[in-house]
TrEMBL record:
UniProt key word Transport: yes
CDD domains, per the entry: PBP2_NrtA_CpmA_like
Cleaved signal peptide residues: 1-17
Alphabetical keyword list: Cell inner membrane, Cell membrane, Membrane, Signal, Transport
Record has Cell division as a keyword: no
NCBIfam families named in the record: SsuA_fam (TIGR01728)
Subcellular location: Cell inner membrane; Periplasm
Annotated TM spans: none
Protein name as catalogued: Aliphatic sulfonate ABC transporter substrate-binding protein
Organism, as annotated: Halobacillus salinus
GO cellular component, one term: periplasmic space
GO molecular function annotations of the record: ATPase-coupled transmembrane transporter activity
Length: 331
């Protein structure tokens, strides 16, 4: 029933726009959209937009804006494809993987770059990447952005691969917010971690930085988060997509212009979503590893997709032509 009402809401927006509405969308109350994001620092634009109600400022009057929080990219992309959410922030890995598998989606903006850190557990007897042979590492999902960044580096620079391809490292998956406790319990040796969870591990003294953001594969060039919507929405309701992108751009500008308030919002939202309260010290440290931007460089995405193919996460060599639509950033 929820999907039916969402579909009807989108249809109403399209019909009104076609009839010459000067608002670029529906005017009657009851129209509804849902935006998704993750509780990590690369997705602060989503937190700021929610806290400041920025989508309501750009969408037509009466539009109800909901938010949904995701633990990983696979569940996010499924929600995009089923229409449970209309847009939001996700890592580039899941977006590219689903696109090459036939998902009709578009990347319409970036969210941030940087923020991936490789952490080693204290007591794991790991002082360099070469020590990873025979060790266990954790990432949010198989083939996710952080997984590909780590495994690309290990394969290209050290010739060490995971057990997915009969390699020397054992791979497990789990939510980043749990990594500190897994380190403390000695259940994993290394984690490929999105911020702020790397800085949290540092602050709690359960691990140390094995490979910092600039030295991780694509660490400072790849969009760590991209803003995705369905191609159907882009084609049939570009006014709505433009309104959504405008709000996202406003959120990114707010972060750049008001970093201290944005940090406070991040602490508050992460506490609400994960029930974990992070200190100002942790957030400050995480912030230094991230650049908040909505600009997208298609070449970096293609290079990253090629690495995903080389690692065996994609069955065919990817062609990302048509994935990125920059027209909404240029309006």
């Amino acid at each position: 029933m929820k999907k039916l009402w969402l579909a009807l809401g989108i249809l109403a927006v399209t019909v009104l726009a076609a009839c010459g509405s000067n608002t670029g969308g529906a005017e009657e109350a009851g129209d509804e959209i849902t935006i998704g994001y993750f509780p990590n620092i690369n997705h602060v634009a989503g937190m700021v937009a929610e806290e400041k109600d920025l989508y309501s400022e750009t969408l037509p009057d009466g539009t109800k804006v909901n938010y949904q929080y995701f633990p990983d990219g696979s569940s996010f992309m499924t929600a995009i494809e089923t229409g449970d959410i209309q847009g939001g922030l996700v890592g580039p890995g899941p977006a590219m993987n689903h696109f090459t598998s036939g998902a009709e989606i578009n990347v319409v903006a970036a969210g941030s770059t940087g923020g991936t850190v490789i952490m080693a557990r204290n007591g794991a007897d790991i002082s360099s990447p070469e020590d990873m042979a025979g060790k266990t590492f954790i990432s949010p999902r198989v083939g996710c952005t952080h997984d590909v960044q780590f495994e690309t580096l290990m394969k290209q620079e050290y010739g060490i691969t995971s057990d997915r391809v009969d390699g020397e490292m054992k791979h497990v998956t789990g939510k980043p917010a749990t990594y500190a406790s897994l380190f403390e319990a000695g259940k994993v040796d290394v984690a490929t971690v999105p911020e702020p969870w790397a800085s949290s591990i540092e602050a709690e003294g359960n691990g140390n930085v094995l490979i910092d953001t600039p030295d991780v594969a694509y660490g400072e060039t790849l969009p760590a988060a991209v803003f995705v919507t369905s191609h159907d929405l882009v084609e049939n309701n570009p006014e709505m997509v433009q309104n959504i992108v405008d709000a996202h751009k406003n959120a990114t500008d707010f972060i750049q212009e008001n970093p201290e308030e944005a940090k406070e919002i991040a602490i508050k939202k992460i506490k609400e979503i994960t029930d974990q309260e992070l200190s100002e010290e942790v957030i400050d440290n995480a912030w230094e590893r991230i650049d908040f931007t909505y600009e997208v460089d298609e070449k970096h995405l293609q290079d990253f997709a090629n690495s995903s193919y080389d690692l065996g996460f994609l069955e065919e060599k990817p062609d990302l032509t048509g994935l990125v639509d920059l027209s909404f950033l240029n309006e």
